[in-house]
Design brief:
Elements lengths: L1 E8 L8 E4 L15 E5 L6 H11 L29 E9 L11 E9 L4 E5 L2 E3 L1 H11 L8 E3 H9 L2 H12 L2 H111 L2 H37 L2 E8 L2 H23 L4 H27 L1 E8 L3 H99 L15 H18 L5 H63 L4 E7 L3 H4 L8 H7 L3 E7 L13 H18 L4 E5 L7 H14 L4 E5 L3 H6 L2 E7 L5 E6 L1 H15 L1
Parallel strand pairs: 3-14, 3-15, 8-13, 13-14
Antiparallel strand pairs: 1-2, 1-4, 4-5, 5-6, 6-7, 9-10, 11-12, 15-16
The structure holds adenosine-5'-triphosphate.
The site of adenosine-5'-triphosphate has 13 residues, from helix 1.
Length: 765
């Protein structure tokens, strides 16, 4: 791996895009003989060191001081009298990476850094944007970080000598290649610190949450119990209310139907009774009037009166006729007459006549019964004779005497009788006529009566009908009223239910469903009362408690988990730290031993003798203050890594302190140390910015030799004014600065440059 080229644009004095190609030349076989030395030469202030700055900046240098500026934007070309400033500084380093020292799968890796005047900066690896951290990480792994020995200035090499042992140790750690472990360790330490903080925070939160969680849990349990109860209550209420509502509905429906039916009946009955009442009224009117019958009756009665008169007249006449006839009849008078001879004769004549008859009858007897009758007759004749004897004895006898009317009187009587009879006839004719008339009238009356009876019967029938209908009507009206009352009751219950459901469930009862199965209303009511009681016992709990408990519990579990994770993370971080410490110590010790040996070697090589050594020292307590608070002295000593002291004594001198060395000697000592470090862990490339400026010619030669020696492993880019050094370079870049204050690059291989110089000399001759 080596630095193939660098592209600079807008960086410090390099206003224009400038490319410096450091590709080493191949040997005759076409393979890379050595990474080589490139010398950058040019007059003071032409911009040579700006090239070193560009490399250092791109490798991630953050310190403006190290970049010889005050502000970060000082790296952007600021403009000159003749050239306007630019907005962006951009530098790209192109590395050949065949050996994959930079651990990514590219044969060429470009690392770019850009800074805009706006302050925005960009880092790119192979054109892809990355973080500065990614670049630092990648370069640390390749051993070419900003803190490594990739860019060394004169001041820096001197700084190795003037640094404290601890600072020096840090430099050695760079050289030992333990920086990556240290980075990892630092990261682990930072993580550990944050983890500790997080753990403390988590534990504090856990401690804060725990008691609250316990209370919340109890409340949440009660809330869940309450929720359970109120869910059950709600379901029971919905069941009951839904059922009741539907019951009321069907009850109301039934009652409404009944009301309709009854109202229809009542209407019908009212109409019917009205009609009947009219009829009854009409009939009763007719019945009261009496009608034709009465008239006939009156007429008949009048006729009867008349007949009566006639009858009386007739009776009188009959009487008169009777009297008259009586008068005319032979009157029988009971008289006491003497039983004289005349009387006896007459009687005997009668007896004789009877005897004759008896004789006759006897002659005519034919049957036995006839004899019986004749015997009776004979006895009667005999009795007559007995009776006559008795009468003769008495001398008198009372006897009916027929007295006949005298003839004149009889004639008068006949006249009267005839008159009477004529009158009687006339009367009886009249009476006959009257009777006929009366009969007609009576027939009329009977007919009328018959008619009246029918009307009455009809009246009574209708009236009965009316009464029945009235009864039915009033029964229907009662029933209708009853239904209306029941309906009103149902409506009131419905209204109550609507209000109850609105109050209890904040729902419209009409939205409640019912599956159609009948319910035990009383059982449900009992359940609801019981559940209400339970709900009351549980009491009102904020419904958000369960949610809060859930959230708090989740948070608690999360924190407990996190706390456990953090503890585990701390353990593994501590393991990482311990592992890194071990590695750092091991690598560092190995590097130290080797560098110490190389230092002795290069020191005596550059100084042509003398003695130098590196010594590990325990740090002074003042240097470690603050790092070890809370530890006892032994622990402090253990915990702090050893520093490094330099003992250097040029040949023939007795030097006990570095400060006693001359400027050149200091320079040589620091270069010996630099070479020791480089040879221990050859960086792929190193930029040396006038590090050999203080050397005399003999020392410069020796410096050049060592450089050449190390150039096999390390690519050197040397900024120098030193001719000896230039001679060792295989590539030369001349930096010039024109009147416009912009650096420019001239590239020449030394051989070509010398050829050019020779030709120029010849021409001049
Ligand atoms: P020397 O040989 O004396 O060490 P050098 O060749 O190393 O000199 P540098 O120090 O690299 O010179 O360059 C210094 C020059 O760069 C100065 O002329 C300075 O004005 C110029 N310069 C530095 N920063 C900027 C900048 N931001 N914009 C423009 N020019 C700058």
């Amino acid at each position: 791996m080596f630095l193939r080229r660098i592209e600079i644009a807008g960086f410090k004095s390099f206003a224009h895009r400038t490319v410096l190609d450091f590709s080493p030349k191949n040997n005759e076989q076409g393979s890379l003989a050595e990474k080589g030395i490139t010398a950058i030469v040019g007059p003071n202030g032409s911009g040579k060191s700006n090239v070193a700055d560009a490399i250092r900046w791109t490798l991630g240098e953050q310190s403006t001081k190290n970049l010889r500026g005050k502000k970060s934007e000082d790296v952007i070309f600021a403009g000159t009298a003749k050239k306007a400033k630019v907005g962006t500084a951009s530098v790209t380093l192109f590395f050949e990476n065949l050996d994959r020292r930079i651990p990514i799968e590219y044969e060429e890796v470009s690392i770019s850094r850009k800074l805009h005047r706006s302050g925005e900066s960009e880092f790119l690896i192979n054109g892809a944007k990355v973080r500065l951290l990614d670049i630092a990480d990648l370069l640390a792994k390749a051993g070419i970080g900003k803190d490594s020995y990739s860019v060394i200035t004169q001041g820096m090499s001197d700084a190795v000598l003037s640094a404290t042992p601890a600072e020096r140790r840090s430099m050695f750690e760079d050289a030992a290649g333990v920086k990556q472990y240290q980075l990892q360790k630092e990261r682990a330490l930072r993580k550990l610190a944050t983890t500790q903080d997080n753990l403390a925070q988590a534990d504090t939160l856990i401690n804060e949450i725990e008691p609250h969680l316990r209370i919340l849990k109890r409340q949440a349990e009660r809330a869940s119990q309450g929720k359970d109860v109120s869910e059950k209550l709600l379901s029971k209420q919905i069941e009951l209310y839904g059922y009741l509502w539907q019951t009321f509905q069907s009850e109301r429906g039934g009652l409404s139907d009944e009301r309709e039916r009854l109202a229809r009946d009542v209407g019908m009955l009212e109409r019917e009774t009205d009609t009947l009442r009219d009829e009854v009224a009409k009939l009763s009117g007719t019945l009261e009037e009496g009608g034709k019958g009465e008239e006939l009756l009156r007429e008949a009665n009048a006729l009867r009166e008349k007949l009566h008169v006639f009858e009386r007249e007739s009776a009188v006449l009959s009487g008169r006729i009777e009297v008259e006839e009586e008068k005319r009849k032979d009157r029988e008078e009971i008289r006491t007459i003497p039983v004289d001879l005349g009387y006896i004769r007459t009687t005997l004549e009668g007896v004789r006549a009877n005897q004759n008859t008896l004789v006759e009858r006897l002659g005519m007897v034919e049957k036995l019964e006839d004899i019986q009758d004749i015997r009776e007759f004979a006895r009667a004749i005999n009795q007559e004779l007995v009776d006559l004897d008795a009468k003769v004895e008495v001398g008198t006898v009372t006897e009916k005497v027929i007295i006949s009317l005298p003839e004149d009187e009889k004639r008068e009587s006949d006249a009267r009788l005839a008159a009477y009879r004529t009158e009687q006839l006339a009367l009886s004719q009249n009476m006959e006529a009257l009777r006929a008339e009366i009969t007609t009238k009576e027939e009329g009356i009977r007919a009328e009566r018959e008619k009246g009876r029918e009307s009455r019967e009809r009246y009574f029938h209708i009236e009965k009908d009316l009464r029945e209908k009235d009864r039915a009507l009033s029964a229907r009206k009662d029933a209708l009223n009853e239904v209306k009352i029941r309906l009103a009751r149902v409506e009131v219950r419905e209204e109550d239910l609507i209000n109850e459901v609105r109050e209890e469930l904040s729902m419209d009862v009409r939205d409640l469903s019912w599956d159609g199965n009948p319910r035990d209303k009383d059982a449900l009511t009992r359940d609801i009362a019981r559940l209400k009681g339970e709900a009351e016992r549980i009491g009102a709990i904020d419904p958000l408690v369960a949610e809060e408990y859930e959230e708090t519990n989740k948070r608690f579990e999360f924190l407990t988990h996190e706390s456990a994770d953090l503890r585990r993370a701390m353990v593994s971080l501590e393991e990482v730290i311990a592992e890194m410490d071990e590695r750092i110590e091991k690598e560092f010790s190995r590097a130290f031993t080797e560098i110490a040996a190389k230092f002795e070697h290069y020191f005596s090589l550059i100084f042509n003798g003398g003695k130098a050594e590196l010594v590990k020292t325990k740090p002074k307590m003042t240097e470690i203050k603050g790092e070890t608070e809370g530890l006892d002295i032994e622990e402090e000593e253990e915990s702090v890594a050893a520093g490094i002291d330099i003992h250097a004594c040029p040949p023939g001198k007795k030097i006990t302190n570095l400060s006693m060395l001359s400027g050149g000697e200091r320079s040589l000592t620091s270069l010996a140390l630099l070479f020791a470090i480089i040879s221990h862990n050859p960086p792929p490339f190193a930029v040396l910015d006038e590090v050999e400026a203080a050397l005399d010619e003999a020392n410069s030669k020796r410096f050049g030799k060592v450089l050449k020696e190390l150039a096999g492993e390390t690519q050197f880019i040397v900024i120098t004014h030193n001719r000896q050094t230039m001679r060792e370079a295989s590539l030369l870049y001349g930096v010039t600065m024109g009147e416009d204050g912009v650096s420019q690059i001239l590239s020449l291989h030394l051989e070509e440059a010398e050829k050019v110089r020779e030709e120029r000399k010849k021409k001049e001759a």
